[in-house]
Design goal:
Helix content is about 35%, strand content about 25%. By secondary structure, the chain is of the alpha/beta class. The strands form 4 sheets. Strands 3-6-2-1-9-11-12-10 form an 8-stranded mixed β-sheet, with helices on both faces. A 4-stranded mixed β-sheet has the order 5-4-7-8. Strands 13-18-20-19 form a 4-stranded antiparallel β-sheet, sandwiched between helices. Helix 2 packs antiparallel against helix 3.
Length: about 450
């Protein structure tokens, strides 16, 4: 018997028929002897529809009230799912984020979890009930205000609960069969990855792969929570996200400490096997970024630091940075960086306010870019990966505007309207295309 945390996304509970199908799957896990905790998202596109409704009522809805509004979606789905499970003869209890003990900071709309105290969830498990928790939400530590965790917050809720409960595995159910070598919506021949390390999954999530959000994988790596990404629409095995040096059976109970550690011999065996892993795990892409170019920056110490201090002070996260070689005749240089497109105007406004102080000539803003990232732990021991990437893009007629690298990732920026072609070209160049059945996207609107 294992303790399993299962998370079901919006496409998995989009309507009454889907909720009944999910309830049947949960009941099967319970009847197999497992303790089950479920985290559920709002039905279908409910959250987006609530956001649209709020924007119709007010051009700038207060963030506190938005959080109260948006948490309604998960409350609906959790109660309906509890009803459907009870109809199958299995006891179920639903809990809001507050009732489940999810404690967050006070950053409405993008709150971060600071503690999980799941006493009521443990009580439900002790009563042999399925505990159903509303994802995406929590409560502030001191004021008890309702908060939401931002996009992908239900994934983070599930992993945080799994860590607090010392669960054996956290199963993330979505509308695809697992993590693929590329987005199946763009590359139908993408191949499912059976197993991927936390580090590789972190790079893919940070680079735009939407199957798991970055915060969820960070939390899982920190507390060594195995994640099993699966589809709620099929019975296929999915993708196991875990430590590269640790073999984990998703249904085998973990140690009493919850550390998931194994013997040195097991680790050595896994280490030897890891050498033979594929060079490239996958190709991720991201259309959500924009580029700001600061033109004519005096090439003297402290100017670049001042630019990024101002951007950081505005609460904007920066991704890629490129500085041109200083022109000898003018002593000026250009600095370009990418940032979330939603923060583009904030960044522009912050820099414009200090233009006289820094002394740059002008700002250029471009929100028609796309980022492609090649990810794989094997690339650190294989030369020629960069050359093959650039050759594939050149052959496809794709121009590269920016380049960024890490030990297991190479990212490039190109035009947004060329991004799909670039993903397919690189995917094929690195022989990632599957010769078997095409990848299936079972549901979801992609909204």
């Amino acid at each position: 018997m294992a303790l399993i945390v299962q998370k079901y996304g919006g496409s998995s509970v989009a309507d009454a028929a889907s909720i009944k199908r999910v309830a049947k799957r949960i009941a099967e896990s319970k009847r197999a002897g497992h303790d089950v905790v479920v985290v559920v998202s709002a039905m279908g596109d409910t959250t987006d529809e609530l956001i649209d409704l709020a924007n119709e009522v007010s051009p700038m809805p207060p963030s506190r009230e938005m959080d109260i509004l948006l948490t309604a979606g998960e409350r609906i789905s959790m109660s309906l799912l509890a009803m459907a499970i009870a109809n199958l003869g299995i006891q179920a209890q639903s809990f809001t984020g507050q009732q489940a003990g999810v404690i967050t900071d006070s950053a409405h709309g993008k709150a971060r979890i600071i503690d999980v105290t799941p006493s009521r969830i443990r009580n439900a498990i002790a009563q042999d009930a399925v505990a159903i928790v509303a994802g995406f939400q929590g409560v502030t530590q001191y004021t008890n205000d309702v908060t939401t965790l931002g996009r992908g917050g239900s994934d983070t809720t599930a992993v945080a609960l799994a860590a607090a409960l010392m669960a054996d595995v956290c199963e993330i159910y979505t509308d695809v069969d697992g993590v693929f070598t590329a987005d199946p919506r763009i590359v139908p021949t993408a191949r499912k990855i059976d197993r991927i390390s936390y580090d590789e999954m972190l790079e893919m999530a940070a680079s735009g792969a939407k199957v798991l959000v970055l915060r969820c994988v960070e939390y899982a790596r920190r507390y060594d929570v195995p994640i099993h990404v699966r589809s709620s629409f099929s019975g296929r095995q999915g993708t196991l996200v875990t430590s590269a040096a640790t073999a984990v059976d998703p249904t085998a109970p973990r140690s009493a400490t919850g550390s998931g550690q194994h013997t040195d011999q097991q680790s050595d065996e896994q280490g030897e096997g890891a050498v033979e892993q594929p060079i490239i795990s996958g190709v991720a892409h991201d259309r959500s970024e924009a580029k700001i170019t600061v033109v004519g920056v005096p090439d003297v110490p402290g100017k670049a630091a001042r630019i990024f201090e101002v951007v950081a002070g505005a609460g904007v996260n920066i991704d890629m940075i490129v500085q041109n070689v200083s022109a000898a005749s003018t002593g000026l240089t250009d600095i370009s960086f990418t940032l979330p497109a939603t923060d583009g105007q904030v960044g522009i406004a912050a820099l414009t306010a200090v233009q006289g102080d820094i002394g740059f000539e002008s700002l250029q803003y471009d929100d028609t870019i796309g980022k492609l990232s090649l990810v794989g732990a094997g690339m650190r021991s294989h030369p020629g990966v960069s050359a093959k990437l650039f050759a594939a893009l050149s052959t496809a007629g794709i121009n590269i505007e920016m380049i960024s690298t890490s030990e297991i990732r190479i990212s490039v920026v190109t035009r947004a309207d060329h991004l799909d072609d670039a993903v397919r070209a690189v995917h094929t160049a690195f022989e990632l295309d599957s010769t078997e059945d095409e990848a299936v996207v079972y549901g979801g609107t992609g909204r």
